């Protein structure tokens, strides 16, 4: 019978906010998980949305989105759900449950796509001309102009730019579109006019609302022509386990689509480093104590996105 192993003591990490406060210039990694929040009482739906919006304004780790009548929050881990549930109950009197946690994917354009809608054409019911070109970019989302800034009021350009960013939150396949440049290639408007013996006539003059309504139509057509590919988030992990458990740990990693890239051994401990899908992190964290007799430790952080 071998020597008794020391009992596993789970170290309680400092809150994420506290750890980030010690690194003021560190950039927050994007959250890679999401869940739908459901109020225990349907009548609390509006109160829930207000509470989550307030919490999101106070805490950069909370990202709220409202879609199809459901309220979703982005997560960095399962523990955050417990903290959020307690905060909503204690501070706002709103009791909630959560649906199954899902992984937040993203979309990137595959190629370049263009689309345009022009004034006074059968397919365009709005008093605006907009042309947009979408193309892949190395990082981030950029809005650019190929038309003269003075060709129409600045408020109309601002309406197009803001609506472009809003529209990119949900791409053709349902995920946020990232890493692209959107260029405005055509613009046009009807100058402010008045009806006979009256004031401003919005039926004869372009407004910012025309540009906000037309932009999603043009941008979605451009994205459809470009095509998009869905990417899933990957985490870089460091796994410290007893060396004699590698025979059970490595097959478990393979089943979770984890790819160890480096390994080292010192005495009775082995350290594995590699990548793992964000969707598998929670499962690995739950299985690790059983695989390692409670002696394994796991650290991970967002690394990159990879095509599905």
What does this structure look like?
The chain has seven helices and 15 strands. The chain is of the alpha+beta class and 308 residues long. Strands 6, 10, 12, 13, 14 and 15 form a six-stranded mixed β-sheet that branches. Strands 1, 2, 3, 4 and 5 form a five-stranded antiparallel β-sheet that branches. A four-stranded mixed β-sheet has the order 7-8-11-9. Strand 13 and strand 14 (269-277) form a beta hairpin. It starts with 15 loop residues before the first helix and ends with a strand. Mean pLDDT is 87; it is low at 1-26.
SSE arrangement, N to C: HEHEEHEEEEEEHEEHEHEEHE
Distance N terminus to C terminus?
Answer: 47 Å
Shape type:
elongated
Largest sheet: 6 strands, mixed
Q: State the helical fraction.
A: 25-40%
Overall mean pLDDT: 87
SS-based class: alpha+beta
- Strand tally is 15
**Hey, roughly how much beta strand do the residues contain?**
25-35%
Radius of gyration: 25 Å
Low-confidence runs of at least 5 consecutive residues: 1-26
- How many helices in DSSP terms? 7
């Amino acid at each position: 019978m071998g020597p008794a192993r020391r009992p596993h003591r789970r170290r309680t990490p400092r809150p994420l906010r506290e750890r980030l406060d010690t690194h003021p210039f560190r950039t927050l990694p994007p959250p890679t998980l999401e869940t739908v929040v459901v109020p225990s009482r349907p009548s609390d739906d509006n109160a829930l949305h207000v509470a989550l919006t307030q919490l999101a304004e106070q805490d950069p780790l909370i990202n709220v989105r409202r879609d199809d009548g459901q309220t979703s929050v982005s997560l960095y881990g399962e523990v955050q759900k417990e903290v959020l549930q307690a905060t909503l109950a204690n501070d706002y009197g709103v009791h909630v449950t959560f649906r199954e946690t899902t992984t937040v994917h993203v979309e990137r354009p595959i190629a370049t796509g263009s689309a345009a809608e022009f004034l006074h054409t059968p397919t365009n019911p709005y008093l605006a001309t907009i042309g947009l070109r979408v193309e892949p970019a190395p990082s981030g989302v950029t809005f650019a102009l190929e038309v003269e800034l003075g060709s129409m009021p600045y408020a109309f350009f601002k309406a197009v730019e803001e609506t472009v960013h809003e529209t990119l939150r949900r791409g053709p396949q349902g995920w946020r579109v990232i890493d692209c440049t959107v260029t405005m290639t055509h613009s046009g408007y009807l100058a402010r006019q008045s009806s006979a013996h009256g004031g401003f006539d919005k039926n004869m003059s372009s407004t910012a609302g025309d540009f906000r309504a037309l932009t999603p139509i043009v941008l979605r057509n451009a994205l459809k022509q470009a095509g998009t590919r869905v990417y899933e988030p990957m985490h870089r992990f460091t796994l410290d386990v007893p060396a004699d458990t590698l025979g059970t740990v490595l097959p478990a990693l393979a089943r979770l689509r984890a790819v160890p890239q480096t390994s080292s051994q010192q005495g009775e401990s082995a350290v594995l480093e590699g990548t793992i899908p964000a969707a598998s992190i929670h499962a690995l964290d739950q299985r690790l104590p059983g695989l390692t007799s409670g002696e394994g430790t796991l650290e991970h952080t967002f690394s990159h996105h990879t095509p599905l």
